[in-house]
Amino acid sequence: IKDRSYNILVENAPITYTPSLHYANEDIEKKGGLKQGSITKAKWIKPIARCNQDQQTAHAILTLKSKECANQILRFGIPIEGKKVYGRKLLPEPTRCLKCHTFDGSHAAAECPQEHDTCGTCAAQHRTSACKVDDQDLYHCINCDSRRHAAWSRACPTFIEKWNNYKKRSEDSKYRFFPTDDPLTW
Q: I need a surface site. Which of 74, 120, 135, 144 has the fewest CB within 10 A?
């Protein structure tokens, strides 16, 4: 049986941090007052190679062994590469098919019933990766039929509605902390 893990989204961590290096995570544990081995996995949300040239910070996901360690980071923050950063619970978001770009949640791209690819940026019949549109005025959302944003936009009203409905059904989203025996986490 696999142990449960607890994911924290750490915001604005210095990009000098290398999540794949074991000793970098040991240093975070030591300086943050966590038990050794508390961080089981760490990764950047977006590959550093895809960041802007002058970007100094980025968001990372830390996976922790225990609720207590995760709550400690949520409550007090944690030092990464000499900078104190703060985190929040990483909550699952609505699933969007990367072929048709709908949020219906019943399928992924491999099982998509649609015969052709739909672009997530301009809604034309091609893969999003092949899209040449870079003018935001030409973006088109397939979900809400809006020309104001792309299907992958977090500002999409359809995404926001689905995410809010998901959060209402999720016990984890009701609390800032992971609930433990400590009443402060309720």
A: 135
pLDDT digits (tens, 9 = 90+) for 133-147: 988 999 999 999 998
Phi, psi angle pair for 128, to nearest 5° = -60, -40
Strand residue runs (E) in the chain: 6-14, 39-44, 57-64, 78-80, 83-89
Compute φ and ψ for 17, nearest 5 degrees.
-70, 135
| pLDDT for res 28 | 96
Greatest distance between any 2 Cα atoms in the chain? 53
Residues of the chain with pLDDT > 90: what percent?
Answer: 72
Q: What is the pTM of this model?
A: 0.78
